[in-house]
Amino acid sequence: MSSRFALRPERVEYSENDVERVCLKLARRYGYYPVRQHVGRFRTPNGNWVTMGTPGDPDWLLAAPGSVFMEAKRPGEQPTDVQRKRHAELRMGYGFDIVIVQAGEQLRDWLERLERAP
Prior knowledge:
The structure is a single chain. By secondary structure, this protein is α+β, with helices and mostly antiparallel strands. It has one domain: Trna Endonuclease, Chain: A, domain 1 (3-Layer(aba) Sandwich). The chain is built from three helices and six strands; from the N terminus they run H-E-E-E-E-E-H-E-H. It has helices at 16-29, 81-94, 104-116; strands spanning 33-36, 40-43, 49-52, 60-63, 68-72, 97-101. Helix 2 (81-94) links the parallel strand 5 (68-72) and strand 6. Helix 1 packs parallel to helix 3.
């Protein structure tokens, strides 16, 4: 008699905040100081709207000698067209590194490769 019962692990859905939380802990462990890049429109307490930052800027600057920008995305999500354009400007125009992560392991692997580079 065959059994149709099979154990399957519960599928875990990670949010962008989950990815950020893990990556920020890793960045600090590797000696980087995370700086949040605030971009968007915000309402002030008196009701006025203020636009901050440059559209498409990465979420985080991981500051240290050899600083890097980090863009956190939910697993399976990709940067928007505006973000891709801005990332290209930062890379080509200013020589910044930008890492796009969907999991803490991606940032860890990237940082370890960076540390081993001559």
